[in-house]
Amino acid sequence: MAQAARIELYSGVYLTAVHTKKFKSSVLGATFLCPLDGEGASRNALIPSVLRRGTETHRDMEALEAALDELYGGTIEPVVRTRGEVQCVGFLGSFLDDAYTLDGSTVVEPAAALLGELLLSPYKEEGRFCPDYVKGERENLVERIRAQINDKRIYAMTRLRQEMCAGEPFGVDRLGDEAHAAALTAEGLWEGYQELLRTAPMELYYCGSAQPERVAAALKEALSGLPTDGQRREMPQAVRKSAPETPRYVEEAMDVTQGKLTMGFRTGCDLLEEGYPALMVANALFGGTTTSRLFLNVREKLSLCYYASSQLMKYKDLMLVSSGVEFDRFAAARDEILSQLDQCRRGDFTDQELESARRSVVSGLRSIPDSQARLEDYWLGQAVSGCGEDPAHLARRVEGVTREAVVTALGGVALDTIYFLKGKEG
Questions:
Q1: Which of 12, 69, 258, 280 is most buried (most C-beta within 10 Å)?
Q2: Between the CA atoms of 174, 179, 180 and 181, what dihedral angle is there, to the nearest 10 degrees?
Q3: Is 267 in contact with 331 (CB distance < 8 Å)?
Q4: How many CB atoms lie within 10 A of CB 154?
Q5: In this structure, are strands 86-96 and 124-125 parallel, antiparallel, or unpaired?
Q6: Where does the pLDDT of residue 239 fall: very low under 50, low under 70, confident under 90, or very high at 90 and above?
């Protein structure tokens, strides 16, 4: 398996480089890490989209596309993500790997230079972002925020997070909210951009056939204009809370034909904990796979849900359940989901179920190196959390998870909040 090298380029600026000859393309990315908060989330989310509109040398998107075409049709796109309570904003690019160029030319250095240009040399008018670019991208951001309500399954999960984690950074959406987004100006966005450059830690990523030292040199040169007069901040520890004695229940009515029952649990465990591999297996056993209790019993056998699954928020000590139900079957579905969890807590599952869950988790981890997108996503999360464990090592830990460890892990899982999206007549 390809190993990841971690190299510090500047104070608070790190490169994770995966050297591999497995792919015909190479991936190059740069991400600013920001504490997730309601005031700055929309501003941070807007910055990479505005940066992508033009640079001092390539003043509009047409010129940027021409530059990318010269790099064998490469791409660099804005990316906004969250990892736990950290907002990750920047760019992710894909280019032809140097090993496959027709004339032996190199792509790494010019691609790194163009990435640095996007990050550090934006097109400006009167000393700040172009107002037309800001206006256009601000409107796009507002529309993206508004459009989130269209997918009711995702909307219900978002609302669960907002209700369950009200007052916690995790309750803030990666794009922020419409009010803050609509109020952004070219001047305010420029100030936020300058703050990012001075104080935000930066994670760089490369996956391809070039040696890590060569990539590091190219990126160090491309980012030599980064400000050095500020102290890059440390990322805060994720907020941890205990579940209330009486779980909260939140109900919302909309014009929908299918109810969305979502449930949030506090686990007391994230990926930095020793018991996290056991929790991964426990989640797979309960609702994380097509051989899980929720899928086979609640959905298939009892037909209480159109879909039912659980997922871990591995950078935050939460497990979330998502299901689609008939309005009048809400109580039956809720009770059966909790009953299945209680059975798993008691160890009331077969050795075959345990082995199936374990194999599913191990298979998922071992397949990560087969996808450049999953590799990048995995190593970004590891960098944000400060965990250097590779997928293969984590898979070996999962293989050693016992029945007793699964029961222990589930013993710390407690229901916090239920959110139900029902129809207006339901």
A1: 280
A2: 70
A3: no
A4: 13
A5: unpaired
A6: confident
**What helix, strand, coil percent values describe the chain, rounded to 5?**
45, 25, 30
Largest CA distance in the chain: 69
Tokens of 279: 């929790």
Quickly state the pLDDT bin for 231 (edges 50, 70, 90): confident
**pLDDT at residue 114 is higher than 70:** yes
Check residue 347 and give left, alpha or beta (phi > 0: left; psi -120 to 50: alpha).
left
DSSP-derived pairing of the beta strands 4-10 and 13-19? antiparallel
- Residue 314 and residue 193: Cα distance in Å, rounded? 29
Range 222-229 contact pairs with CB under 8 angstroms and sequence separation of 24 or more? 222/112, 222/113, 222/115, 222/116, 222/117, 223/9, 223/10, 223/13, 223/116, 223/119, 223/120, 225/116, 225/120, 225/121, 226/10, 226/13, 226/120, 226/197, 226/202, 227/197, 227/198, 228/10, 228/11, 229/198
β-bridge pairing 4-10 and 318-325 = unpaired
| Tokens, residue 90 | 């920047």
pLDDT at residue 426 in the model: 46
Averaged pLDDT, 365-369: 96
Q: What are phi and psi of 204, to 5 degrees?
A: -105, 150
What is the token pair recorded at 260?
Answer: 């969305």
Burial tier of 230 (Cβ tally within 10 Å: 0-12, 13-18, 19+):
middle
- Calculate what percentage of the chain has a pLDDT beyond 90: 94
**For the residues 2-20, what does the mean pLDDT come to?**
93
- How far is Cα 110 from Cα 105, in angstroms, rounded to an integer? 10
Per-residue pLDDT for 188 more than 80?
A: yes
Place of tokens 């250097």: 388
Confidence of residue 2 (pLDDT cuts 50, 70, 90): low
Rounded (5°) CA angle 26-29-32: 170
Q: Which residues contact 172 (CB under 8 A, 6 or more apart)?
A: 36, 37, 38, 41
The SS3 of residue 83 is strand
